[in-house]
Design a protein that fits this description.
This protein has a 5-stranded mixed β-sheet with strand order 5-6-2-1-9, with no helix packed on it. Strands 4-3-7-8 form a 4-stranded antiparallel β-sheet, with no helix packed on it. The protein is an alpha+beta fold. It contains 2 helices and 9 strands. The protein starts with a helix and ends in a 9-residue tail after the last strand. The longest helix has 31 residues. The chain has 2 domains: 33 residues; 124 residues, Immunoglobulin-like (Sandwich), CATH 2.60.40. About 7% of the residues have low confidence. The protein is flat and about 90 Å long.
Length: 174
Amino acid sequence: MIKNMKTIAIILTLPILLFSLSNCGGAQNNKGKMTLEQNPPFKIAEAYYQNWVAGIKEGGSGTNVHITFSEIDPDVVIQNIYFRKHILEAKGNINEPKHFVGYLKNEMQRDIIMDSDPIKEAQNTPQKEFPFQLEENQAMIEYWFGGKKNHYKIENLSQKEMIPYPQANPNQHE
């Protein structure tokens, strides 16, 4: 009799245990999932990128991504612009509240440190995985609306003529 009760308890407990474990993984996947919005609470008037180069070697070079909205819900918070495998902070302007810019400065390629000393190798920073597959002229806007993080893909950014800055760093305001 006791053996039968143990068997019944195991038979009843096992499906509950398996069901609860399977839900843990599902909840985690939904949390990490990025939502692509088809009908965002804004309309884009213009979206383009523009390369720049400083007139001095130390000034560097880069690309600025510009997005201007014709309409935008006041509760929308534009956070980041994903462009060419980089995540750029979307910076607004008090004088132009519907205009945002992401600044991408071309960094010198850092050498990877290979050393028998693990402390020296620990200085290497692993490259973050880029979450989207984007073409050269595409960008993704990350924004908050209704307490939820959303993403909207801009399909065709136009390219404006390069700006050669004479002897100055164009991002001095940063």
